[in-house]
């Protein structure tokens, strides 16, 4: 592996560490009992921001590639987490299958909606320029 790839992996790891710390910080700020609001919030916001970054040519042009990949793959890859969703769904299911279904459906459809919203916002910005 070339030296530049090792640097890129290091930067992705740093981005991942920052995303994980940010995600954990959000769970400390959003106290939720009985429903995993913090994970839902993190995943929905992460869906929107990652979509917005990915589809915005303007931002892609401002952010060098060597920084873009650590931000998207590193930071958002660890900031949002499917493993937490599935684990929390199973835990909710044990107590209330209705809450579990609300959680998984709102995560999935809310994520799709916000991802699409990020895409639409970038498209509208392109049209106005």
TrEMBL record:
It catalyses: fluoride(in) = fluoride(out). Na(+) is not transported, but it plays an essential structural role and its presence is essential for fluoride channel function. Pfam families: CRCB (PF02537). The chain crosses the membrane at residues 9-31, 37-55, 67-85, 97-122. Keywords: Cell membrane, Ion channel, Ion transport, Membrane, Metal-binding, Sodium, Transmembrane, Transmembrane helix, Transport. Na(+) binds at residues 77, 80. It is a multi-pass membrane protein. It is found in: Cell membrane. InterPro entries: FluC. Belongs to the fluoride channel Fluc/FEX (TC 1.A.43) family. HAMAP family: FluC. Fluoride-specific ion channel. Important for reducing fluoride concentration in the cell, thus reducing its toxicity. This is Fluoride-specific ion channel FluC. It comes from Aquibacillus albus.
């Amino acid at each position: 592996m070339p030296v530049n790839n090792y640097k890129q992996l290091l930067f992705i790891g740093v981005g991942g560490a920052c995303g994980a710390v940010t995600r954990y910080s959000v769970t400390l700020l959003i106290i939720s009992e009985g429903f995993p609001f913090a994970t839902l919030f993190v995943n929905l916001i992460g869906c929107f921001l990652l979509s917005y970054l990915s589809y915005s040519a303007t931002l892609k042009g401002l952010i060098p590639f060597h920084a873009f990949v650590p931000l998207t793959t590193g930071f958002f890859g660890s900031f949002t987490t499917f493993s937490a969703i599935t684990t929390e769904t199973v835990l909710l299911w044990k107590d209330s299958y209705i809450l579990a279904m609300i959680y998984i459906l709102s995560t999935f459809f809310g994520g799709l909606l916000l991802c699409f919203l990020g895409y639409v916002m970038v498209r509208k910005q392109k049209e106005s320029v």
